[in-house]
Amino acid sequence: MKKSRNAKSRKRGQPRRRVVPLWRGRKVRGTLIALLVVLAAAGGWRVWQSGWVPSAIDKAKWKMIALSSDLGFKVNEILVIGRRETAQKDLLAAVRLARGAPILAFDLRAARQRIEALPWIKAASVERMLPDTVLLNVEERQPLALWQHKGVFALIDSDGEVILRTGLERFSDLMVVVGRDAPAQAAELLKTLASEPQLMDRVKAAVRIGGRRWNLRLKNDIDVRLPEEGAAQAWARLAEYEKTHRVLERDVQILDLRIPDRLIVRKVRKPVKILSGKRQQT
241-256 pLDDT, tens per residue? Predict the structure, then answer.
């Protein structure tokens, strides 16, 4: 029997080459898989649009939450860190969480947004401590000054945000700042004044002038006019004048620091007395 040329050239022990059908080739299989994925996705999208899948997922979720509650995953305690000024009842009202509620059903993000909407709260975080505790960590605003605008007072923080507009009596020792843009500039002003603490203790109010600079009213009713630029240097200069010349203990009405390296002083005008029908300057 005659052997073929290919048979002669094949080495002993070498396996025969398998013939792979066309439909089982790599390229063809890849194309079929891609087509099936597209068809499945298209069908799945139609099912999703019909509302059946979201509804089924939602039902399954609530079944799992109910089961977890039966297993002990429900609220037993709420821990709060950082609360000083915020009333407990206001905080709990914002949390909207009752003891015994399923802890996995609690919407952390919505609760955080409600808490941060409270007047004293600057920032907050809300966490689950499984199985039964919710942790609230709050950062409260720090009172900076009383803002007077159009005859109305408000308590502001270091960011210039209004904290309260009523119940301000216990903050009466804070400095009063006056002017439309005073809240936004108050923190920088107080930082400047704090560089001379003994002098700062004498300040009771600060008036914003033209949105550019400040006039200070001291407790002995002396007005100090700070410059638009170099206010910190002018303030330090006044502190030095006070140490060497005691200018704040004299009969002074205005101390003008707007000219560099100079202090312009305006003395108090003495009152006029009327004696025996004649006006005399005293």
Answer: 999 999 999 889 999 9
